[in-house]
Amino acid sequence: MEFGINFFPTVGPEEKPADVYFDEALRLVELAEELGYDHVKTVEHYFFKYGGYSPDPVTFLAAAAARTSRIKLVTGAVIPAFTHPLKLAGKLAMLDNISKGRLQVGFGRAFLPDEFDAFELAMDESRPRFLDGLRACQKLWAEENVVWDSEFYKFGPVTLLPRPYQRPHPRILVAAAITPSSCEQAGHDGHGLLLVPSISKREKVQEMLTLYRKAYAEAGHAPGGDEVHLSYGCYLSEDSAEAMAKGREYSQRTNAVMVDAVAAWGTRRSEGYAGYEAIVDKIKKSDFDKSVAENKTLVGTPEEVTERLRTIREWYGDVTISLQMISGNPPYEETARTARLFAEQVIPNFR
């Protein structure tokens, strides 16, 4: 198993100025490299406290690259619908060179109606725009004199500069939420997979992983390339009661900002997002203790979290774990403590 830190901000100017947030986050990046974590990752979101401090993962990861020499840099994920593929592919190729090939590119569809409205895009077009943008980037990285003529973009012949450091291109990962067909498509195309197990029942996650791995194998891709990243909220303390109390507090803060971000789903419907109309009610009814009991969040002592991870490995196999340690806006000192405890007392059990 591999382990990394996923930077998912859930904070606004009233709680923490942006410059302070980035200073603390980059200090944590340096600590992650020192402690032997395998990757750092960040999201793309806009406008809301739910992720809004990270409108451009490439900018953050370029700063992370400058402060590190070993750790992988993962977009989790960039949204091709919101950026022209010529721009997106070029920025990511720059980052791949700056980091000397440490980049993995996660692509996602996005799911917040307010973001689509601001970019003046129809949510019903999100899936074809996602696939079009991803495939255009892939072609721009791998080939020269590229000509592209699709429903959404028309350009070429062009040869992207700089060429990616990794050839033919960086590892591609695809973010999926609750749609099994997205997992199946990712497997068929030979990409890695990004999932958030906390939003689905264990059986649903297992179903999606089975579809993904089956499609990957049947398409004839190289064995071992079916990489799966699972994201979990994480808070550790050597005192179990403290871990539960603080973990609950930060989980509730995260849920509060998420409810605000998804509020538009209370009145919106989209063919491409079946079932999302229930998301507001589902978040409001979230039960922290149940989430801990069902291994949907990694909160507790190092020993307790180790046991949770052993169960997760039994359920899902040797996956890559992305830890959301900053969500809920804990103080930097507590986050650094969690990072140290996890690295020193949990990770050695899975190496």
UniProtKB/TrEMBL annotation:
It comes from Streptomyces crystallinus. It comes from the Bacteria. Residues 1-316 form the Luciferase-like domain. The keyword Phosphoprotein does not apply. Keywords: Monooxygenase, Oxidoreductase. PANTHER family: BLR5498 PROTEIN (PTHR30137:SF8), LUCIFERASE-LIKE MONOOXYGENASE (PTHR30137). InterPro entries: Bact_Lucif_Oxidored (IPR050766), Luciferase-like_dom (IPR011251), Luciferase-like_sf (IPR036661). Pfam families: Bac_luciferase. This is LLM class flavin-dependent oxidoreductase.
